[in-house]
Write a structure and sequence with these properties.
This protein is mostly helical and 141 residues long. 57% of the residues lie in helices and 0% in strands. The longest helix is centred in the middle third of the chain and has 55 residues, at 40-94. The chain is rod-shaped, with a radius of gyration of 55 Å. 0% of the residues are buried.
């Protein structure tokens, strides 16, 4: 029963063209957020991929630097081993009797008993009179 009355009311309002003193409200269309149609998931995925690419590239850069350092250290270790082997060989030679005798003769000027030391003098050197040593090996002053 209420429905016919409503129609009559609408007809009545239309006849008199009654305007209310209140302004009509404008209804804005409500914008709903539709996740499936929005670009937000795509943007998040792109940002995530960029982050992963940057982090992977930095990690690979660090890895290559570390590998280069390992190769350099291995080369240094090999050089040190070679130098160590050379020094061990030199130490073995230095401790031998033949080397000790050679250094004593050349650098210290020592001679064995019964030997005479001969010193080569460069040509053109003026020397004063040298006296020969006596039988005891002493040179008179």
């Amino acid at each position: 029963m209420n429905q016919p009355l409503r129609k009559e009311q609408e007809i009545f309002d239309d006849r008199f063209n009654y305007e209310s003193p209140l302004p009509k409200r404008r209804y804005r269309r409500r914008v709903s957020f539709n996740l499936s149609k929005s670009k937000l998931p795509t943007l998040i995925i792109v940002l995530l991929l960029c982050y992963l690419a940057i982090s992977f590239s930095s990690q690979f850069s660090r890895l290559s630097n570390m590998q280069r350092d390992v190769v350099n250290i291995q080369q240094q270790v090999q050089e040190m081993r070679d130098k160590n082997a050379a020094l061990r060989e030199e130490l073995r030679l230095v401790q031998s009797d033949a080397y000790i005798e050679k250094v004593a003769r050349e650098k210290m000027g020592l001679v064995k008993p019964g030997e005479t030391r001969v010193i080569a003098v460069p040509e053109g050197t003026k020397m004063e009179k040298i006296q020969a040593p006596d039988r005891g090996g002493n040179v008179p002053d």
